[in-house]
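Our consortium's second objective concerns turning raw sequence data into structural hypotheses that experimental partners can test. To show how far this objective has progressed, the report includes one record in full. It was chosen at random from the queue rather than selected for favorable results. The single chain below, 203 residues long, was entered without modification.
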Amino acid sequence: MANTSAPFGFRQWSGTGSAPTYEQTAANIASGNTTPIFFGDPVVQLNTGFITQASSNSTQIAGIFVGCKYLSTSQKRTVWSNYWPGSDTSNNVEAYVITDPNAQFLVQSGNGGPVTFASVGNNIGFGVGATNGNTSNGLSTYYADFSTINTTNTLPFRIIGLAGYASYGTNPLSGQNGYDTTTAYNSVIVAFNNVATKSLTGI
């Protein structure tokens, strides 16, 4: 079946961590940061010590955002949320970010494609969907940007596999959305390439 464009950000696939840490580290979002950050968004470290949503492939990312907690002004209590809405607190926000350099992520491709087996081993950047995150469920709308696939060492991710594509060359999940490797919007497995916890590498 042909894949449908429905980007969901960078969803953790595997890594070296285990429950209850899931390879997360704590970071901080400035209370005055009005830019929402969604579950699965790449984030960057600012020179102020805070993080924010990544908007450019040319900046080294700090990791993948997976939630936060903050003291809600409207609810008068601590709120645990899978996304930062961009308001509702006068205090800085405690954020949770996957930073492990060995972490791997499932992500849908976009802006061309499909991503084929020949692209495995190349680097790739990211883009964001028509809406900057889904406020209904707090999930990211970032995708792996097919048009950026290259050997450029500053790109944030490395393609390490195609979702559902077995090592012996078959694709048993090809009937599911995102797993058809012959049409655009197929999902890929990526790892960090240009991230704060990992040195830059070329090919």
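The partners drew two points from this record. The two ends are 33 Å apart (CA to CA). The first strand starts at residue 11 and ends at 14. Both points have been shared with the crystallography group to help prioritize constructs.
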